[in-house]
Amino acid sequence: MTKSQEDYIETIYMLFLAKRPARIRDIARCLNVKTPSVVKAVSELKSLGLVIQEPYGSVELTEAGFDTAKNVLLKHSLLKKFLILLGVTPEIADEDACKMEHILSAETLDRITEFVTERLGKSACQENSDELIREAVGIVTDSFTKHPRKPPKPRKQKVESTQSAESAVPDARDESTSDQ
Q1: How far, in Å, CA of 51 to CA of 37, rounded?
Q2: pLDDT digits (tens, 9 = 90+) for 147-166
Q3: Of 34-48, 84-98, 136-150, which has the strongest mean pLDDT?
Q4: Which of 16, 40, 67, 148 has its Cα between 20 and 30 A from that of 24?
Q5: How does 137-147 read in b/e, with b if 16+ C-beta sit within 10 Å?
Q6: Torsion of Cα atoms, 91 then 94 then 99 then 102, to 10°
Q7: Torsion sign, CA atoms 31, 33, 39, 45
Q8: Which residues contact 94 (CB under 8 A, 6 or more apart)?
């Protein structure tokens, strides 16, 4: 699974945890990407058997999709806790965990899990669904706040028919006389 696919499936899962439908436009908004990119990614996730979607409907995770998404989110949560233990601020830890979760080997993740477990206890590395739900709701809410819907572009106004053509054209005498 690619980094991009992991980001998409994690976002779909977070929308699910936040009790929001995972519509194409909402996924795009959360990830700050264009809808054609989401359509392509969802198609790839469908071919992997991780999501299903009726035409124009919400994207839903399959059982395998839930397992995969949960693992990605748990890995992210573990890495964020690890970075916070190292003294990184929560905001930076969240950003860095998102980057790290895609590139670390299983061995490195095992060592990080051991380190966090020694410092915070075993329960800190196990699934804490209430914490994950709160975090997912916060992330989804933030993404809708940071990337609000854009208002429609204003339409060009037509020149009033009562306005003479002469007044609609700028007077050449008003321009600078630099060519003299």
Answers
A1: 16
A2: 554 444 455 555 554 444 44
A3: 34-48
A4: 67
A5: bebbeebeeee
A6: 180
A7: negative
A8: 80
| DSSP states along 108-167 | HHHHHHHHHHHHH-HHHHS--HHHHHHHHHHHHHHHHHHSPPPPPPPPPPPPPTTS-HHH
Q: Which domains does the chain have, with CATH numbers?
A: 3-146 (1.10.10.10)
Amino acid at 68: T
97 and 79 in contact (C-beta within 8 Å)?
yes
**Locus of tokens 């409907």:** 57
Answer for the pair 9, 50: CB distance below 8 angstroms, yes or no.
Answer: yes
Yes or no: say if 22 and 42 are a contact pair by the CB < 8 Å rule. no
In this structure, are residues 8 and 27 in contact, taking their beta carbons and an 8 Å threshold? yes
Helices (H), 86-105: 90-100
